[in-house]
Please model this.
Amino acid sequence: MCDVLISIEDKDSASYVDGPSASGAISVLTKGILEGKLPRQDAVMTGAVDVYGNVVPVGGLFEKAKATVKSGKTYLVTPANLVFEKLLLLQLKEKYGLHVIEVSRIDDAAKFILYGKEPEIANFSLENRNLPNVTEYNSNSGLDVFKNISLSVIELENSSINQLSDSNNESAEIKSYFKNEVSIQLYLLDKGYYFTAANEAFLNYIDVSTILQINDLNLKKKYNQINSCLSNLNKKNKTQNDFEYLIGADLREVWAKQMLQRTDIESAELVEDKYYVYNDLMYADAWCFISEQLRNATDSSGIQMNESSLKEMASTLISYAENLELKSDDSKEHLENSKILFDQEK
Model:
């Protein structure tokens, strides 16, 4: 083994070759130099490479794809993309004819750039799940109310899916993928797995709704919509018959408010950055929707609950959690939310 120094003499291009994102391209160029092969001139590559030869994700993918289009190139070689990244790049394919070549190994990138051989990874390929093999869950615990809530989340998700384009093979495949997810959720709902069905629908609603805004990422508008939703949540006193649902409503309300508080919509400048911020905001949007559904599912009948009776227990548990020296961000957020709810006497 030896160290290799790569010098790029074209000063006009050198400013574009920088950082971990360039390591994949530099590796391919080095291989080409050693093998006496010139790289194809119609392709651009972005992606970091690790010591094992894996091509790993990088940031700013949408902006780099736009730069590829601007430079007049036809192909962009990238790491394997997530669903939302596929949708982002699909916009550029439809508008400018950009072809995205996804690779997981640096050898595959080299084969395409140096030898013109397509990698085995199918671009824009999504594998539909089969129906899960689950036994029917019979419960007499009064969960029919939550079944209706689960169904409302699935309907919300499906409404967003119906707005997806199916104008070409790739977009039709993505729409079909999410439609298949809905069929699985309805199957789970029928089998009695109400929470699982609702949770899957919840997550898909967030992603699909974000996808729909690719060409109109109005962060301020979405932020204001969520604020309006939170302001209009009706207040209900907890009773012995509905306190579990209203506790869930309180939790999701504070999750949504905290998400808004820590989301800086002004800092996002790149399109991809705005996309991620919008996706975060959609969590708050969905939490507010669930909070509203939980509130509307109750009738406030029964003996009113005295929440102050839980104050000592809650205080003890919060103190215990504080002494655990929590490491994960999720755990820290849950603790912070607990303190907020405690201060609100919830």
Observations:
- The mean pLDDT is 87.
